[in-house]
Design brief:
single chain; two-stranded antiparallel ribbon; 19% strand; 5-stranded mixed sheet; 2 domains; alpha+beta; 9 strands
């Protein structure tokens, strides 16, 4: 972990809960309760719902952005490199490794749209809000990936910075 950053987890939050509660639950029950609630929230997110956090702490949702790849002298810009396939290519083809050829992900299964979790902090009434981040765990990312492969569609960001989102109706391959 980076210097100066403190990671808050369910385990670390238990000490504070136990100190401030009159009749605290045991740690195992506490962890099971929070894990169950987190799983419920993740199910809501992957269904396309927006979760509004209490105390005006913003909202979490799944958003997508249409990829706009550009071919340049250095290769293709605007696409994610598939490092697993690239290393496999380099093991099998030495000239490709010397040329530093890369394999890219085109997201053809979602018509060139890259989806991710986003914590919107625009309405947050808090100083130094840029210091806080939301990083979903691998299980959550995998669940989102599976939902995308099933054909679930989410909100699409428009424009360069896309401060506002809108729902696009027909985003699939065949319109």
């Amino acid at each position: 972990m980076s210097k100066g950053k403190k990671l808050e987890t369910f385990n670390t939050a238990y000490a504070s809960y136990k100190k401030n509660s009159k009749e605290p639950l045991d740690k195992k029950t506490w962890i099971n309760l929070l894990n169950g609630f987190a799983e419920y929230l993740m199910n809501c997110l992957t269904k396309g719902e927006t979760i509004y956090l209490p105390e005006k702490l913003g909202a979490i949702q799944v958003i997508g952005k249409k990829l706009e790849p550009k071919v340049t002298d250095n290769g293709i810009e605007g696409l994610t490199i598939n490092w697993g396939a690239t290393h496999k290519l380099w093991r099998e083809c030495q000239p490709c490794k010397q040329k530093k050829q890369k394999v890219y992900l085109f997201n053809e299964h979602s018509d060139g749209i890259r989806y991710r979790f986003m914590w919107s902090r625009t309405a947050m009434l808090m100083t130094n809000k840029y210091l806080y981040t939301y990083i979903p765990n691998r299980k959550s990312k995998k669940k989102l990936y599976e939902k995308i492969l099933e054909g679930t569609e989410y909100q699409i960001l428009e424009g360069r910075y896309a401060p506002y989102t809108r729902l696009k109706n027909k985003v699939g391959k065949y319109k």
